[in-house]
């Protein structure tokens, strides 16, 4: 009954990669009781927030809940995948919550989570947080024997074991793939999916933001309208403005302003899923220092857990995860 726990203490002993892999594979296997897709969704939320931890490897419940709610909204509403519980007599509570809010506000099926009104997002995430406190945080904690993280419902903070945090960054690409695969496999078994081949793509893309326009407007308000890579002026038509993930989204799995740059369409398309030349790391680090000094409260909130070496660290872990193809303009 670990899912009923309100506090979970961390087993602080050092763990080798082999020991962590053993626990991780058990979580994904049939040895771990999975009556719903919740554990996969929490694992995906942890992965998406790996680079949002503070110096103590802590994440707030609000950070994790936002990701968790966004994933389920896009699965349930946008993709009409309603079954997430092996108990056919009872819907997963997160599905009930989402469908109730959709019906109350007459929200159409094609509306993505990021486009919801802020007040609706807040109401939804608060209700989803209650579900996670009751059924999610303690459940995955129990399956990992307290090795992966500690949690406390009263202060609403989850603290990753530093060794596990490093492990997840080191093997991030493989962990993402395995989690997505097993989540898709379970959803497939619970739903009548017309296109099974497309299901994994849906699972992979549920964290994507619908539009990066807010970031574009903000970056244009503080920096010249020129491409971060080729430095040519940005304009409509031949070189329209794009917002590019400096470290590819397929690795970061989230939209962080410190990892977003203004790019022309030509550079953005050519760069695609590659890392930029390493020399650009210093450039974006200096750019981010300018952002930190803007005094803008919204920017400050987005940069809350940013450290100067974060992009460089991210770049190195991306290389270790197989992003060895680099690109530069010219």
Q: Could you characterize the architecture of this molecule?
A:
It holds the Pfam family HNH_4. This is HNH endonuclease. GO terms for molecular function: endonuclease activity. Residues 214-269 form the HNH nuclease domain. The protein has helices at residues 17-28, 38-48, 61-78, 93-104, 118-135, 137-143, 162-170, 172-190, 196-205, 213-222, 249-252, 265-271, 279-292, 297-302, 310-320, and strands at 7-8, 58-60, 149-152, 157-160, 241-245, 260-264, 275-276, 326-327. It is an alpha+beta fold. The strands form three sheets. It has a four-stranded antiparallel beta sheet. Strands 5-6 form a two-stranded antiparallel sheet. The protein folds into two domains: 2-205, no CATH class; 213-327, no CATH class. The model has no long low-confidence stretch (mean pLDDT 90). Helix 2 packs antiparallel against helix 8 (172-190), helix 3 packs across helix 4 and helix 8 crosses helix 9 (196-205).
Tell me the helix content: 40-55%
Strands ordered across the widest β-sheet: 1-3-4-2
Q: What is the assembly state of the chains in this entry? A: single chain
Return the domain count: 2
* End-to-end separation: 59 Å
Order of secondary-structure elements: EHHEHHHHEEHHHHEHEHEHHHE
Low-confidence stretches: none
Which whole number gives the mean pLDDT? 90
What composes the largest sheet?
Answer: 4 strands, antiparallel
The number of helical elements comes to 15
